[in-house]
């Protein structure tokens, strides 16, 4: 496996990383899929393996900012989120370890199709995303679901926000605003575990990650404030846009 090595960083590279991070942080905090922007950028600079690990630095920074923003806006229902943390974190740890051993290209292609279906479902049935829903899953089933979502997030990250939103809205009774708040909390909870595993496999470039994170934190902070102020219907259309962008990038990357 190729590890992180010495990479020359030009001013142009810095600009691309900061701008890409800004856009990705904005999209990630609102709906997920921002990694479909940052991973191709990092892949061009450092290769796919290091890109997958290095991306977690920016994800960690962005979700720190996003959690703060959603919390200040009253959009994090902590009591309901905490039970979802353990299965998600354990799944992410297993997924991150697996990612250091195998290639995730096939999974990305399959998930691109899922993203398109998610976008279509949001357009056709928007009311199902903006209204509170009763929890329909048992505790055991819910834990299995969030373990699986955590596995995917640890494995490849790109698009995990969509899976989390689906699980939170349809499986745990969140609406889209509170679901986004819960989503960033869960990603923040598992990302340190995933990052540590990638770093142990020498698949993290800390310099590239820090530069990317500077833009991503700003984008996430802006997105969190806009999401809380504008409400779920506005976020729904950002979700559609982000889903399409993520799907296209996954298919062509």
UniProtKB/TrEMBL annotation:
<keyword id="KW-1003">Cell membrane</keyword>
<feature type="transmembrane region" description="Helical">
    <location>
        <begin position="144"/>
        <end position="170"/>
    </location>
</feature>
<dbReference type="InterPro" id="IPR052017">
    <property type="entry name" value="TSUP"/>
</dbReference>
<feature type="transmembrane region" description="Helical">
    <location>
        <begin position="234"/>
        <end position="252"/>
    </location>
</feature>
<protein>
    <submittedName>
        <fullName>Uncharacterized UPF0721 integral membrane protein</fullName>
    </submittedName>
</protein>
<keyword id="KW-0472">Membrane</keyword>
<feature type="transmembrane region" description="Helical">
    <location>
        <begin position="182"/>
        <end position="201"/>
    </location>
</feature>
<dbReference type="GO" id="GO:0005886">
    <property type="term" value="C:plasma membrane"/>
</dbReference>
<feature type="transmembrane region" description="Helical">
    <location>
        <begin position="208"/>
        <end position="228"/>
    </location>
</feature>
<feature type="transmembrane region" description="Helical">
    <location>
        <begin position="106"/>
        <end position="124"/>
    </location>
</feature>
<keyword id="KW-0813">Transport</keyword>
<keyword id="KW-0812">Transmembrane</keyword>
<keyword id="KW-1133">Transmembrane helix</keyword>
<feature type="transmembrane region" description="Helical">
    <location>
        <begin position="81"/>
        <end position="100"/>
    </location>
</feature>
<dbReference type="Pfam" id="PF01925">
    <property type="entry name" value="TauE"/>
</dbReference>
<feature type="transmembrane region" description="Helical">
    <location>
        <begin position="6"/>
        <end position="31"/>
    </location>
</feature>
<dbReference type="InterPro" id="IPR002781">
    <property type="entry name" value="TM_pro_TauE-like"/>
</dbReference>
């Amino acid at each position: 496996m190729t590890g992180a090595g010495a990479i020359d960083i030009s001013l142009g590279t810095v600009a691309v990383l900061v701008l890409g991070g800004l856009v990705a942080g904005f999209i990630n905090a609102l709906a997920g899929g921002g990694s479909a922007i940052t991973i191709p950028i990092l892949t061009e600079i450092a290769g796919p393996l290091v890109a997958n690990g290095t991306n977690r630095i920016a994800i960690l920074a962005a979700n720190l900012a996003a959690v703060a923003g959603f919390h200040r806006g009253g959009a994090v229902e902590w009591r309901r989120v905490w039970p979802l943390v353990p299965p998600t974190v354990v799944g992410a740890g297993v997924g991150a370890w697996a990612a250091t051993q195998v290639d995730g290209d096939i999974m990305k292609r399959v998930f691109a199709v899922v993203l398109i279906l998610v976008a279509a479902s949001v357009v056709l049935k928007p009311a199902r995303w903006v209204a509170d829903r009763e929890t329909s899953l048992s505790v055991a089933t819910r834990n299995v679901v969030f373990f699986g979502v955590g596995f995917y997030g640890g494995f490849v990250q790109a698009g995990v926000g969509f899976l989390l939103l689906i699980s939170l809205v349809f499986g745990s009774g969140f609406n889209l605003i509170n679901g986004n708040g819960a989503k960033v909390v869960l990603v923040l909870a598992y990302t340190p575990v995933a990052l540590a595993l990638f770093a142990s496999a020498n698949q993290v470039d800390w310099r590239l990650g820090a530069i990317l994170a500077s833009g991503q934190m700003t984008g996430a902070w802006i997105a969190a404030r806009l999401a809380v102020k504008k409400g779920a219907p506005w976020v729904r259309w950002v979700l559609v846009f982000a889903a399409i962008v993520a799907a296209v990038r996954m298919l062509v990357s």
